[in-house]
Amino acid sequence: MKFRYVYQKVVDLKSNQKTQAEWMLSAAVGQLQAEQLSLELLEEDKARTLAAIQFEMENKSSMVKLQELQRYMDYLENCIAIKLGDIRQAEVNVEKKKAVLNGKMLDEKVWLKARDKARHKYQHEMLLREQNELDEMATVRFAMKAR
């Protein structure tokens, strides 16, 4: 007779919930990485713009061109500040998803441990049953030889 755990559906559900939590964490980490990459691109653009401003100043270019570059630099700094906020929010989201995943992992572990205990109990009972049958067979043989 094969072992069947009464609450196997619950164990499967907990396992699926853990898998979903892993996917959600993976998505949150991907979002964080995308935000960080976007920030890097903004920082590189800012560095290029700063270099362009310095080049224009050295070449004594028109004031209009310098003002245009300065406005663009201000815009980039604003974008960077917003992006830093987005990154902080993405980091908070990653931490929340980690906490959810830890909870789901703990739930799954509890149910797996309960299933293992039930399996060990079942195996122990089967061994006892088998031993009792063997003892009964030995007793019957002994009784038949004794006659």
What report would you give on this structure?
With about 150 residues, this protein is mainly α. About 90% of the residues lie in helices and about 0% in strands. The protein has helices at about 10-60, 65-145. Helix 1 runs antiparallel to helix 2. The chain is rod-shaped and about 125 Å long. The mean pLDDT is about 95.
What's the layout of helices and strands?
Elements: H1 8-58, H2 63-146
- Give the helices and strands as they follow along the chain: HH
* Proportion of residues in helical segments: over 70%
N- to C-terminal distance: 36 Å
Number of helices: 2
Strand residues, percent: under 5%
What summary fits the major beta sheet? none
> What is the 3D shape?
rod-shaped
- Mean pLDDT comes to 94
Question: Number of DSSP strands?
Answer: 0
Summary?
Helix content is 92%, strand content 0%. It has helices at 8-58, 63-146.
Name the descriptors:
147 residues, mainly alpha
